[in-house]
Every structure is written in C-alpha cells, then in structure tokens.
TrEMBL record:
GO molecular function annotation: ATP hydrolysis activity; ligase activity; ubiquitin-protein transferase activity
The protein's name in its UniProt record: RN213 ligase
UniProt keywords, alphabetically: Ligase
Key word Ligase present: yes
InterPro entries: RNF213
Length: 79
C-alpha cells in the first residue's frame, strides 16, 4: 500500500523505501487502492492476497537489488 498510494499520487518512488509497521491510511483506503491496482474488476480475497504477495515479493527484491541503490539510482533517475 505504501508504494501504490505514492504511485497513485505521482510521487517520486526512487528514494522511497518500505517501512514495516508504518500505518498509513485506513483499511478502507488500503482495500480500495489494492482493488484499483489488482487488475480485476471484482477480485476475490484470494486474488487480492495473491496480488499483494507477488507485489511484496517483487518490491523486496527491487529494494535489495544493487541496481536500485541510491548511488546507482542517481545515475538512472526514473529507471
């Protein structure tokens, strides 16, 4: 949700890092955001769960990647 809500507001994600335990928005806002980006018009709970697990896995790998470090990111802004 932290990434998706910032993406929706067109914020720069290059310098953002997920902070576990940080609560942002309400449960209703989070669910609406997930449903918007899920890619299904009426997703089931299983589809939302799969979407969030996949997205979380990909974003963690991205944050740990040397190619997306702040040093390299300065050279490839917006990559």
């Amino acid at each position: 949700y932290q990434y998706l809500s910032r993406y929706k507001r067109k914020e720069n994600l290059d310098c953002f890092t997920f902070v576990p335990g940080r609560i942002e928005g309400t449960e209703k806002e989070c669910l609406a955001c997930l449903m918007e980006f899920c890619g299904r018009s009426d997703p089931s709970w299983t589809e939302l769960s799969n979407f969030t697990h996949f997205l979380n896995f990909q974003l963690r790998k991205c944050e740990r990647s040397v190619f997306f470090s702040p040093v390299v990111g300065a050279e490839f802004c917006g990559f």
